[in-house]
Inverse folding.
């Protein structure tokens, strides 16, 4: 934890204990609240506040989880990118439902998101792909994500070959790489409070809007 994060932890501890979450109201909007919390997490000095645990399941309901970086969010949902040949992608294609959990310990906050998952348009994946560092673009081509790898030297050799192949041109978007969007059915906000009397506020989709419910900690 950085010095800034340590200082923020001391400051926000009191915030969490004394201020907590406001009472649920019919006009609350969870995406706006998430945006406020995410902005505060970025300002706190946390490393990679966009990191979230992504949980998926096979068709037989066997779960798996890993960290992903959520690169965009809005009314339509939360977007992350991956190799479409990866284990997570294979599970999402079979069972297009997932959960995300953001954890910002400095702020004593968690956000839990559950929803349906769809691929985003190719044009959007392409735009994000070409915003990444060139090395990351080539790395996406080099990795057959989740497949067995004999040794690291093979991966590094493939990376060097691709560097040579694309040295005088833009790196194209791989057909096997792109984004998914988690369209939330529910979003729960968790705020740490004194004596473990934490605040939990859950929003559930209700047609075009949301309903909110306060939960016991």
């Amino acid at each position: 934890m950085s010095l800034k994060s340590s200082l923020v932890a001391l400051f926000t501890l009191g915030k969490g204990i004394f201020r907590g979450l406001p009472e649920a109201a019919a006009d609350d909007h969870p995406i706006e609240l998430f945006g406020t919390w995410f902005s505060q997490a970025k300002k706190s000095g946390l490393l990679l506040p966009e990191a979230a645990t992504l949980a998926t399941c096979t068709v037989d309901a066997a779960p798996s989880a890993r960290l992903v970086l959520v690169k965009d969010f809005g009314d339509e949902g939360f977007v992350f990118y991956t190799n479409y040949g990866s284990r997570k992608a294979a599970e999402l294609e079979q069972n297009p439902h997932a959960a995300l959990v953001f954890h910002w310990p400095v702020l004593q906050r968690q956000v839990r998101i559950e929803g349906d998952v769809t691929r985003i348009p190719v044009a959007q994946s392409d735009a994000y792909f070409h915003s990444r560092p060139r090395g990351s673009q080539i790395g996406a081509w080099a990795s057959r994500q989740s497949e067995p790898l004999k040794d690291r030297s093979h991966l590094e050799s493939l990376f060097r070959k691709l560097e040579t192949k694309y040295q005088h041109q833009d790196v194209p978007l791989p057909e096997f790489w792109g984004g998914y969007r988690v369209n939330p059915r529910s979003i729960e906000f968790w705020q740490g409070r004194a004596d473990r009397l934490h605040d939990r506020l859950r929003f559930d989709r209700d047609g075009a809007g949301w309903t909110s419910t306060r939960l016991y900690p």
